Amino acid sequence: MKIRLGNEDIQSASVRRLERITGEDVKRCYQCGNCSGGCPVSYAMEIPPTKVMRFLQLGNIEEVQNANSMWLCVGCLQCYSRCPQGVSVAAILEGMRQETLRKGESRTEVKEVPFPFLKKAPQQAIVCGFRKFVG
Amino acid sequence: MKIPYYPGCTLNTVAKQFDTSARESASSVGFEMKELAQWNCCGATFPLTPDNVIGLTAPAKVLSNASKEGDTLTTLCAVCYNVLKRTNKVIRDNREKRNVINGFIEEEYDGSVNILHYLEVLRDKVGFDKVKASVKRPLKGIKAATYYGCMLLRPFEDIGIDKAERPTIFEDLLAALGAEPVEFANKIECCGAHLAMNNEEVVTTLSGKVMTSAVGAGAELIVTTCPLCQFNLEKSQPKVAEAGSGYSPVPVIYFTQALGLALGQDIATLGFEKNSSDIMPLLKKKGIA
Ligand code: SF4
Ligand code: SF4
């Protein structure tokens, strides 16, 4: 497979925008893999945290946008606490989720949440879940 | 000693036993939890992107109400604690954001309130020695797993309740109550959190890892500090047992229920019937009840 990497990829405007929203600098990541190693849900992510960072460095934000990773991040901050470079993949994924939700797109519909869950679950799960999945 | 107290939504409803056992225990060790006259939901999640200032207004309102009642605020739910403490730091350290937030909530709050988790009140204001001296029903011979989860600890530089990777505050309390804390690998790992809403598979896997790690280390009891951890663990437990890995369920309780038990509260008032796992067989086996 031939990969063509131009200035326009490295300087992707969408990635710069994401950096502004999240306060992160994707170039700081040196691909050590600690975040994916510590992430409890990387096993279920189509693109685990370390690869998320690599795709963004290469300007390929669409690939990450189409993956389930941002919807699976539980915000546990293991990635951030283990990153030797102080990068928060959690912030990156939340920023991407927010951008998606602001466009009115979501993967969870309120009406799909089972009623027995809403009746028994801790309020904090419902409030937090709706904020993360619906906006 | 009176300490202003923020219960939060969950402790006012499905986790009522967490609230009542804490209030009762506080009075046994010499302080009173004074519920804030006015409070609202903290938002249940700290916004992870700095541009989301609007997400800070709900917790800021709680903090500003608290500042009218004293210089300290205590809370029990690990998530409320995390959100309030982090928001407070932003307001204290970031003048620009403080002005925006104050503009929204129409208050003049400066971030001066000291946020203490109930565990910190016990350690730093009461002292674990005094807690130990007040024990009337020691949890003798119970091997207990102290499950911290995420929100009580991370990010370390904002929370700082104890050492980031190897905290002991929770074990120290259980030891003071006479129990035997066990060391287990997943004590600071996530339970699956809000994925409870739409991803049972991930929650069962994550909570299952926490419980098998605890029980594998010898635990006969799991103790929690967060109603969502409590919910996810209890809900996943039967499924983990059914999966046939040889796992057999153990009781899961709030740390304040363990505290109230050790301080000699009437067992019938500790709200164990609200938990979905049954602690009574264990208490009988150990000669505690
Ligand atoms: S915060 Fe999200 S990306 Fe980071 S370790 Fe936790 S689940 Fe993984
Ligand atoms: S831990 Fe930090 S430096 Fe290492 S791969 Fe993850 S983001 Fe990059």
Can you put this structure into words, describing what you see?
The complex is a heterodimer of chains A (135) and B (289). By secondary structure, chain A is mainly α. Chain A has two domains: 7-103, Alpha-helical ferredoxin (Fumarate Reductase Iron-sulfur Protein, Chain B, domain 2, Orthogonal Bundle), CATH 1.10.1060.10; 107-135, no CATH class. Chain A contains ten helices and no strands. Chain A has helices at residues 7-10, 13-22, 34-38, 49-57, 61-65, 69-72, 78-82, 89-102, 115-120, 123-133. In chain A, helix 2 (13-22) packs across helix 8 (89-102). Chain A starts with 6 loop residues before the first helix and ends with a helix. The mean pLDDT of chain A is 92. Chain B has 289 residues and is an alpha/beta fold. Chain B folds into two domains: 2-119, Glutathione S-transferase Yfyf (Class Pi), Chain A, domain 2; 136-285, Rossmann fold. Chain B is 43% helix and 11% strand. Chain B has helices spanning 16-28, 57-67, 78-93, 95-105, 118-126, 128-133, 156-159, 169-176, 200-216, 227-242, 255-262, 280-285; strands spanning 2-6, 32-35, 72-75, 114-117, 143-146, 180-182, 221-224, 252-254. Chain B has a four-stranded parallel β-sheet with strand order 2-1-3-4, sandwiched between helices. A four-stranded parallel β-sheet of chain B has the order 6-5-7-8, with helices on both faces. Chain B starts with a strand and ends with a helix. The chains are: A mainly alpha (135), B alpha/beta (289). The structure holds iron/sulfur cluster (SF4) (2 copies). Residues 29-35, 49-50, 53, 82-85, 87, 89 of chain A line the site of one iron/sulfur cluster. One iron/sulfur cluster (SF4) binds next to helix 7 and helix 8 of chain A.
